[in-house]
Structures are given as structure tokens and as C-alpha cells.
Design goal:
With 398 residues, the chain is of the alpha/beta class. Helix content is 43%, strand content 18%. The protein has helices at residues 11-27, 38-45, 72-76, 92-104, 122-125, 168-177, 179-189, 194-197, 215-225, 240-248, 275-284, 294-302, 317-329, 336-351, 356-362, 366-381, 386-395; strands at 2-4, 32-35, 55-58, 61-65, 81-85, 109-113, 129-134, 144-151, 201-205, 231-236, 259-262, 265-270, 287-291, 306-309. Bound molecules: 2'-deoxy-thymidine-beta-L-rhamnose.
Length: 398
């Protein structure tokens, strides 16, 4: 069983759904995924037809609405593994149900799946236990102790690794083997005319909206407008389109399928793609701007240079996480020149600073950065994927 609260946006649902689907497909487990924001989950999965239902099935996963009506004690009985995603608070009935199972035989394994970070401290906390004493009137004994394990995704062998389906890298390989064909097919399906993309540098832009001004976006767009080569920037529909309109000096927000131009730059609004189509888009772009957690990981599997808009946190805690990632991403054999440009652009992007000059420095480095991004992808692929790590932990139960 997986429990997911949708804090905001789509990342929490995206990660939980991807994990659930992989546990079914590749590990043959029956999986139930409880999600509190039912409407958001269904719209993410394109399953609005199930809006009035309390549960449905999708690709072998049992999807359930996490709501007050659920009898949690019976829902959890028989579960072998309970995953609370991102420290969401489990319903009391689930805890009591697990404790009741523990009082008579073995309780389910209980895992708190944490957020992704490249910081080195997570290796110390990955796999750590927390003991919880549960008292409940329905329990046969006065108190039962449950044990929760903290599970951290990450970039090193001391962590749980990253979500990666077993056939993902093969899929990228075949999309990229005929890059021009895949790209043309995708853009045609999106209704984007050939005139916009032949010979253009292709960029995907998935980012958070910012307070009025959006210096980073404005300065970057202005710099791309001056490029000697055409650029096509694809923006999946979302709140950032208001910033895009502002950066283009337009009053109207682009509707899906519309293209606007500013010098050498063309910007197209595209639909929010189904998960697997989004992978294909990342695969054939020359540069991907991604955000949050899941799209950030997917861009790394695509083996293309990326700019990461990290989820902003209080007291700028996210900047520490950003630097920890950039330090890992830029280490090893990176040529100082190209890595430095990418690292600086990432920092300026997150600080909402002027990215204009940086873009002119970065663009010529993209071929080298593509080569580096592929090496990074290969290095990450040497680690076990997150679902397999979880399975190993689960099977090694005492
Ligand atoms: O949407 P995000 O910003 O999500 C999260 C949440 O805000 C969460 O609360 C926070 O904790 C976390 O970031 C760090 O970004 P993310 O994680 O990339 O999630 C977006 C999901 O949407 C991801 O699964 C990829 C998917 N997606 C598509 O399926 N199609 C698309 O066209 C796009 C742009 C994304």
C-alpha cells in the first residue's frame, strides 16, 4: 500500500504513481495507491471518468481515494508493505491496523519514502529506523511497538537510488537513434508546423511561475531572441505561461497550439503531456528545463543537458540542495568550461537573476554538455533503481 498526499502541483502524485506502476509491472506485487486529492490524481492520469468513484484500476494499480469514509483497519489488514510517501501522516486507523497485525503475527513493513536530495547526510539517514509505540482500544495488548524505516532516494550507492523503469534507457536509445524522425513525429502530433522547428534548437520549459518581473526568464528570452540560429521553446500548459507572455511582451497568454515569436525565438504552448510522451519530449530536446523532483529525474534519464528549477523552500534551504546536486553533476571528467556554464546558469535561474549573458556562453557548450549528460545517465544507471532497492529491503525482512 502506498499513501500519497498531494502537497501541491503534480510531483508527489507523479512519484507515487510511477513507483506503484513499476512495483506491479516489474515486481508482480498487488499495489493499492491511496491519494487524498482525487480530482488532481485523476486529471494527472487522464481518468476523469472515475471522478464519482471511490476507487478504480489503472494499469494494474488499484487507485483509491484517501477519504474519511475508508475503514482503515480492514483496508490495511493483510498488507505486507506500507509506504507513506514524503512523510505524509498515515490515518490513525492504519497505524492501529498495523499494530493489531503485529500483536498477533508480523506487522507490515512500514517505510517512509523521503524526498530526493543529493546532500551527503542522507546516506547516514537512509535505512534508519524509528520505533513507534501504539496504544489503541482495539489492540489485544496494552501497547504494540511498530518500526518505521526511512528510505531516501538518491544519487549514490548509500541511498535507495532513483526511479527508473527497466526499459527506460532502451526507450531513450531508440528515440534518439532517429532523433529527427522522433522529433518531427512528436511535433506534428502536437500540431506544431514544420516551419517553426526545422533546424531549430529545441528546448522544453517546465518551471515555476515567479513574482512579477521574472528577470531570469525575461533576460533568457531576450538573449535567445538575439541568437543567430532559431530556437523553439515548448512550454507545457501551466501557470508559467503568464510569465512567458510577460517575457514576450504580450498581453495574451498563449493557448495550447499557439506559437509566438521574438526575433530568433519561437515559443509554443503545448498540452500537459501523458507521462510517457513527456519522456519522449525530454529525449529529443537539446536542453530541458525541469522542476521539482520527478521531471528533474526524468531529464537525467533522457541524457540531455538540464536546468533545474528546484522547489523553493523557506530560508532558501533549497539552494543548499541545488548546490549539492550541482557539485555531483559537475564532478568527474567535466571539462571546466562547459560544466561551469551549466552550473552558473542553474544558479542564476534559481536566483531569478539575469541569464542573458550566460545563455550566450552556454549555447556553444551544448554539444559537449550533451556528451557529459549521457555519461551522467550511464553512471546513475549503474545503481539499483529505487523500486528494486525497496523490493530488496522488503524481501530481506527479518
Ligand atoms: O509539479 P512539481 O513541481 O512537483 C513537486 C510538488 O510541488 C511537490 O509538492 C514538491 O514536493 C516536489 O515538486 C519537489 O514537479 P515534478 O516533481 O517534476 O512533477 C511534475 C510531474 O508531472 C512529473 O511526474 C512529470 C509530470 N509531467 C507530465 O506528465 N507531463 C508534462 O507535460 C509535464 C510538464 C510533467
Amino acid at each position: 500500500m502506498i499513501f500519497c498526499t498531494a502537497v501541491d502541483n503534480f510531483g508527489d502524485i507523479g512519484v507515487c504513481w510511477r513507483l506503484a506502476r513499476q512495483l506491479v509491472r516489474e515486481h508482480d506485487l498487488p499495489v493499492t495507491l491511496y491519494i487524498d486529492d482525487w480530482d488532481k490524481a485523476l486529471s494527472f492520469l487522464g481518468r476523469q471518468d472515475a471522478r464519482l468513484l471511490a476507487e478504480t484500476r489503472e494499469q494494474g494499480v488499484r487507485l483509491c481515494h484517501w477519504c474519511d469514509a475508508v475503514d482503515w483497519q480492514s483496508a490495511v489488514s493483510g498488507a505486507a508493505l506500507v509506504i507513506e510517501a514524503f512523510g505524509c501522516t498515515l490515518p490513525e486507523g492504519v497505524i492501529a491496523g498495523m499494530a493489531a497485525m503485529g500483536a498477533v503475527s508480523a506487522p507490515p513493513r512500514w517505510v517512509n519514502l523521503e524526498y530526493l536530495s543529493a546532500e551527503s547526510w542522507i546516506e547516514d539517514y537512509h535505512g534508519q529506523l524509528s520505533l513507534q509505540t501504539v496504544t489503541h482500544p482495539d489492540l489485544p495488548s496494552a501497547a504494540t511497538t511498530l518500526c518505521k524505516t526511512f528510505f531516501f532516494p538518491g544519487f549514490t550507492s548509500g541511498t535507495g537510488g532513483l526511479l527508473r523503469e527497466h526499459d527506460l534507457l532502451e526507450a531513450h536509445k531508440s528515440w534518439q537513434a532517429d532523433q529527427a524522425g522522433t522529433r518531427a513525429g512528436l511535433l506534428q502530433a502536437l500540431g506544431i508546423n514544420k516551419e517553426w522547428h526545422e533546424d531549430a534548437l529545441l528546448i522544453s520549459l517546465f518551471a515555476y511561475p515567479r513574482p512579477p518581473g521574472n528577470v531570469a526568464l525575461k533576460s533568457w528570452f531576450a538573449a535567445m531572441a538575439e541568437d543567430s540560429q532559431p530556437v523553439l521553446c515548448l512550454v507545457p500548459v501551466g501557470a508559467v505561461l503568464a510569465d512567458v507572455a510577460d517575457a514576450l511582451g504580450q498581453m495574451q497568454i498563449l493557448a495550447v497550439g499557439e506559437v509566438a515569436t521574438l526575433g530568433s525565438l519561437s515559443v509554443a504552448a503545448i498540452p500537459f503531456l501523458p507521462l510517457d510522451d513527456y519522456d519522449r519530449l525530454l529525449s529529443v530536446c537539446d536542453l530541458n528545463l525541469v522542476r521539482g523532483e520527478d521531471s528533474f529525474v526524468r531529464a537525467q534519464w533522457a541524457g540531455r543537458p538540464l536546468i533545474w528549477h528546484i522547489y523553493p523552500q523557506q530560508d532558501d534551504a533549497h539552494l543548499v540542495k541545488l548546490d549539492a546536486f550541482l557539485a555531483r553533476y559537475g564532478e568527474d571528467s567535466w571539462s571546466a568550461r562547459s560544466a561551469d556554464k551549466l552550473v552558473r546558469f542553474n544558479r542564476f535561474w534559481n536566483l531569478d537573476a539575469d541569464c542573458g549573458k550566460l545563455w550566450h556562453d552556454l549555447r556553444p557548450q551544448l554539444p559537449d554538455l550533451t556528451y557529459r549528460a549521457r555519461n551522467w545517465q550511464q553512471k546513475l544507471a549503474e545503481l539499483p533503481d529505487l523500486a528494486s532497492s525497496l523490493m530488496q529491503f522488503y524481501r530481506n525482512r527479518p
